[in-house]
Amino acid sequence: RRERQRFVDKNGRCNVQHGNLGGESSRYLSDLFTTLVDLKWRWNLLIFLLTYTVAWLVMASMWWGIAYLRGDLHQAHDDTYSPCVANVYNFPSAFLFFIETEATIGYGHRYITERCPEGIVLFLFQSLLGSIVDAFLIGCMFIKMSQPKKRAETLMFSHAAVVSQRDGKLCLMFRVGNLRNSHMVSAQIRCKLIKSRQTPEGEFLPLDQCELDVGFGTGADQLFLVSPLTICHEINSKSPFFCLSRRSLRSEQFEIVVILEGIVETTGMTCQARTSYTEDEVLWGHRFLPVMSLEDGFFRVDYSQFHATFEVPTPPYSVKE
């Protein structure tokens, strides 16, 4: 097998990296929420912990600063003195007061007195800022956890695609399956052919994308994915594989990107699963083994045969020939 760089990995990851953005990298900060959601989990957790830690230390320092400037730290044990915050003696006690206020725990030992207008203003600022930080970070974590990316892990694609005859026509086929009992609502499948080509004007297109018809006109691209389905692309005069034969397949260099989209039934969120097939993963003259069997009152799917193929008599010539 010839090893070469893929445009899309078998697990759906796109091998594209953006570099030399220059001043355009500021666009990531303009959409900070999406940027945080797109980060990996380890960076999300690090930002989550650092944001709360820094915010807690800064706000506790502000409460300690008010007590220090008013002289409350030196007269905290004087019963006749009215401090800004009762029972705040040092920075740890100021930090505990902030945590009790922010978390609405309220043990009742530390509290703001009415003779501290700056403390009341800081308390209002703390409440507003805390609500904003909580809404932003908790919302980010919730969206991160509820993303339907993991749902794509239970959508299967066959390891290889096959070329054989169906209904007297030469077809390119591959298989898709859903491992969960929950359905993919409005599931739709699309295929793109990634192949380098040169235009009549001499322009070289290194990754030209061409659409492969998998039933757009007939509605066959709309899937009822309750059992494994074989997706079929008819090779005809309109197909980019019109001149493809068994012999020319060995010298071709292309990649077929498969995109399966649908709505997750349990969450209502849109899910997308991707995979790709290179020319080495297209088997000429093969057909997929059946995986459905009728049991007592239900149909059983044998996923151990999901990727299995067997040879069938297939003309080695292209449709054009």
Account of the protein in words:
The protein contains 6 helices and 14 strands. The strands form 4 sheets. Strands 1, 2, 3, 7 and 10 form a 5-stranded mixed sheet that branches. Strands 4, 5, 6, 8 and 9 form a 5-stranded antiparallel sheet that branches. It is of the alpha+beta class and 321 residues long. A hairpin with a 5-residue loop joins strand 4 and strand 5 (204-212). The longest helix is centred in the first third of the chain and has 30 residues, at 41-70. The chain has helices at residues 27-30, 32-38, 41-70, 91-102, 117-145, 246-249; strands spanning 155-157, 161-166, 169-178, 184-198, 204-212, 222-223, 229-234, 255-264, 270-278, 282-284, 286-288, 292-294, 299-301, 309-311. Helix 3 (41-70) crosses helix 4 (91-102). The chain crosses the membrane at residues 45-66, 120-143. One of its GO terms (molecular function) is G-protein activated inward rectifier potassium channel activity. Residues 8-148 form the Potassium channel inwardly rectifying transmembrane domain. Keywords: Ion channel, Ion transport, Membrane, Potassium, Potassium transport, Transmembrane, Transmembrane helix, Transport, Voltage-gated channel.
Question: Descriptors for this entry?
Answer:
6 helices; 27% helix; 26% strand; elongated
Strand content: 25-35%
Q: Name the helix and strand elements from N-terminus to C-terminus, one letter apiece.
A: HHHHHEEEEEEEHEEEEEEE
Low-confidence stretches: none
**Number of strand elements:** 14
- Main sheet summary: 5 strands, mixed
Query: What gyration radius follows from the Cα positions, in whole Å?
Result: 31 Å
Cα shape: elongated
Our measurement of the CA-to-CA distance between the termini, rounded to an integer number of angstroms, reads: 27 Å
Total count of helical runs of at least 4 residues: 6
Q: Helix amount, in percent?
A: 25-40%
Quickly give the structural class.
alpha+beta
Q: What's the rounded overall pLDDT mean? A: 86
Domain Potassium channel inwardly rectifying transmembrane: 8-148
Organism: Eudyptes filholi
Protein name: G protein-activated inward rectifier potassium channel 1
Family: Belongs to the inward rectifier-type potassium channel (TC 1.A.2.1) family. KCNJ3 subfamily.
